[in-house]
Specification:
heterodimer; A: 439 residues; alpha+beta; Beta-lactamase; 2 domains; 8-stranded antiparallel beta sheet; 12 helices; 19 strands; 18% strand; globular; B: 271 residues; alpha/beta; D-Maltodextrin-Binding Protein, domain 2; 10 helices
Chain lengths: 439, 271
């Protein structure tokens, strides 16, 4: 027993010495209450004690300063969570991809209104799948698109492209039929890393029927993966290289990667499977549930071909804070201007998807900008925050939220499946960080 | 002269870029002709959207179409079921097929013209119990093994022989064979060579051809009798194919893709 204790103590010491040297400011200095922020720790510790999650890193920043950076629980078996633990941020990759597109927009290389086919010819003459009446001889028909898919459609998830996993979220015959084509064509959601390039996948995807006419439905799907390939075509650089040199390097996001460097593998958090009732197991293989295929262990690969604009990035709470702070600052961080103020205003405008609501992560009252959901009104079931808050999340339970009005950023990074169980915890975290505002 | 100058200025102002800026955007797809369309399924190296001549079968067919002045646009699709959809539910001029035996086409409207007939072999991988896969021409010898099939492939004979089936796209099947997830796959030698070289050239020699041959793959074009130009195009194509062969162009295309040692006369006899 003594030996185990010594081992744990040594491990803890070793890891804390490696941990990130970020010294949060006193919360009161940025108008936050220390006591109220402690409630965040209590809620997260409670979830860890109840074995709902193994661990998390939570960050709250206000007025450009980090006021709360709390690692809790375990990153892996016998490995305590650290402030610089690396996470699979999955769909929180999407805002980075949108930013890459908007950098090219600012360089005059593309316009959101451009048809995607201008750059990827396979998107010409696309078809949309429509179901025939039930008594028809053939179940569906393919009709021409009324207009071409644009880059704006991809940025706002109104392209008509699906995720295969959506057959589990919103099952219907039409979706099932489109996904049947996806399966046959070897399309994947990108949560596992196939042994092919993103261009190979996107070119096949473009030839398959769309689920809806471009611009006519909000449908969360593979649009960001297409944007990642679009970055390659327009910039003539590999997508990861572009993001590294144009986003990660200028923002000093030193621990953000598409494939983890060998010397950082020990900092990557494990993924855990939780039944949310006290049974928590470290995931050792792929998680397959119908059309949903997750391969958390693919994140240990140090190299590979697949660069998903919707799912591939690994990052830390601090790195993602730097990205979010750049957006909150309307495009600038530490004297480096990445995007113009007008571009960030365009990305965070609430009128991109018309009458549709972005209801995957939230309820009604949320719209989708160019890369994230944005709170539009308070007439619906909204728990916290303000109109104009923008946020998104990732499949292994990661979430970020930026409140421009109050100048706050909240980031919660965990690695726990399944995704659906976490909504309540995330909502509490954003509610608690909001209610810590004390000025 | 002055009035002419004014008129030109007026025209320039009226039709300047700004005057169009708020007008409707016209999508390129509005200008693409939709008649005489043909569909094909991607199947490397015979039909390939990534290669310059779009594959061996495509080059042979395109050679005839051009020579006989049969207008048409070929759309290469990633799935067989989409090709089948278009043939059964719409009126394309033709579809190009890489395995006629596996294509469900309504005979009442299909006019099939064979263009190429190649041997099909089963392949195992050296780490996957190669010796145990001595099939001697009988599927029953492979009972309990796992065969890698394409979605939509007729696998009834394999199931009847007690063989397990795993489905994937052909490139993925080759990888799964290497990973030991399946025991054998079936395809023409050219396909195996192409995919194994693309994926891991150093491991290409580790694929083992299982003798005797598993069958053949009859490739060609199916014209649509319901298309107004289908019948005529089919007749022209038949003649054109004969001319391509008699001119020696057919043989040289085969040699270019399959190697100088290919016995072209033997293959020509089979179509």
């Amino acid at each position: 027993m003594k030996k185990v204790y010594h081992l744990l103590a040594a491990l803890s010491l070793a890891y804390s010495s490696m941990a990130l040297a970020i010294e949060p400011v006193k919360p009161e200095s940025v108008g936050l209450s220390s006591m109220r922020l402690d409630r965040l720790s209590q809620v997260i510790d409670q979830h860890i004690a109840q074995k709902k999650i193994a661990g998390a890193v939570t960050l709250v920043a206000r007025k450009g300063k980090i006021a709360y950076l709390q690692p809790s629980g375990l990153a892996d078996i016998d490995k305590p969570m650290q402030a610089d633990t690396i996470f699979r941020i999955v769909s929180m990759t999407k805002p980075l991809t949108s930013t890459a597109i908007m950098l090219l927009y600012e360089q005059g290389k593309l316009l959101p209104s451009d048809p995607v086919a201008k750059y990827i010819p396979e998107f010409q003459n696309q078809k949309v799948l429509e179901m025939n009446p039930e008594d028809s001889e053939f179940p569906y028909k393919l009709v021409p698109v009324k207009r071409d898919v644009t880059i704006h459609d991809l940025l706002t998830h109104t392209s008509g492209l699906l995720y295969l996993a959506s057959t589990g979220w919103f099952p219907n015959d039409k979706r099932e039929q489109v996904v049947r084509f996806y399966r046959e064509a070897g399309i994947t959601d990108g949560f596992c890393r196939p042994d092919e390039t993103i261009g190979d996948m996107v070119k096949r995807l473009a030839k398959l029927p769309l689920y809806a006419q471009p611009g006519e439905e909000w449908e969360y799907g593979l649009s960001a993966d297409v944007l990642g390939y679009l970055v390659e075509v327009v910039s003539d650089m590999k997508f990861d290289q572009f993001v590294q040199t144009q986003i990660f390097d200028p923002l000093k996001m030193q621990d953000s990667h598409f494939y983890i460097p060998e010397n950082k593998i020990s900092r990557l958090s494990a993924d855990w499977n939780s039944d949310w009732k006290g049974s928590l197991e470290r995931v050792t293989g792929p998680l397959i549930d119908g059309d949903l295929a997750l391969c958390p262990n693919d994140a240990y690969a140090t190299s590979g071909k697949y660069l998903s604009g919707g799912a591939s990035v690994l990052s830390t709470a601090y790195d993602y804070y730097r990205f979010a702070q750049m957006l909150l600052n309307k495009g600038e961080l530490d004297g480096v201007r990445l995007l113009s103020r007008k571009t960030v205003e365009l990305m965070t405008a609430t009128n991109h998807i018309g009458e549709h609501d972005a209801t995957l992560l939230h309820s009604h009252g949320w719209k989708f900008g160019l890369g994230f959901a944005i709170q539009e009104d308070r007439s619906h079931n909204v728990d916290s925050g303000d109109i104009g808050i923008f946020e998104w999340a990732g499949y292994y339970s990661t979430r970020f939220s930026v409140n421009p009005k109050e100048q706050t950023i909240t980031i919660f990074l965990s690695q726990t499946s399944p995704f659906g169980a976490h909504f309540g915890l995330w909502d509490k975290i954003t509610a608690l960080s909001t209610s810590a505002i004390a000025d | 002269m002055k009035s002419t100058h004014k008129f030109i200025s007026l025209i320039v102002v009226l039709f300047s870029a700004n005057s169009f800026a708020t007008g409707p955007r016209v999508a390129p797809s509005l200008f693409v002709a939709d008649t005489n369309i043909m569909y094909a399924q991607e199947y490397s190296p015979f039909i390939s959207s990534s290669s310059e001549q779009q594959g061996l079968l495509f080059e042979l067919i395109n050679g005839v179409l051009k020579a006989e002045d049969i207008p048409g646009t070929v759309n290469i699709l990633p799935t067989k079921s989409m090709v089948q959809y278009y043939f059964s539910q719409e009126i394309p001029l033709a579809i190009i097929v890489h395995d006629f035996g596996q294509m469900k086409a309504d005979n009442s409207k299909a006019m099939f013209i064979p263009v190429l007939d190649l041997d099909k072999y089963y392949y195992a991988y050296q780490t996957g119990e190669a010796k145990a896969l001595d099939w001697a021409g009988k599927l029953s010898h492979l009972k309990g093994k796992t065969y890698g099939a394409n979605k939509g492939e007729d696998v009834s004979a394999y199931k009847q022989a007690g063989i397990n089936i795993k489905y994937a796209r052909t490139p993925a099947l080759v990888k799964q064979l290497q990973q030991g997830k399946i025991d054998f796959i079936g395809m023409p030698e050219a396909t195996l060579n192409d995919l194994s070289k693309q994926q891991s050239p150093e491991q290409a020699p580790l694929f083992i051809k299982m003798m005797p041959k598993a069958g053949n793959m009859l490739m060609g074009i199916i014209f649509n009798k319901n298309h107004t130009e289908g019948q005529l195009a089919a007749e022209k194509f038949k003649l054109g194919l004969k001319k391509l062969i008699s001119s020696g162009q057919y043989q040289s295309i085969l040699r270019k893709h399959l190697g100088a040692n290919i016995v072209t006369d033997e293959l020509i006899k089979r179509i």
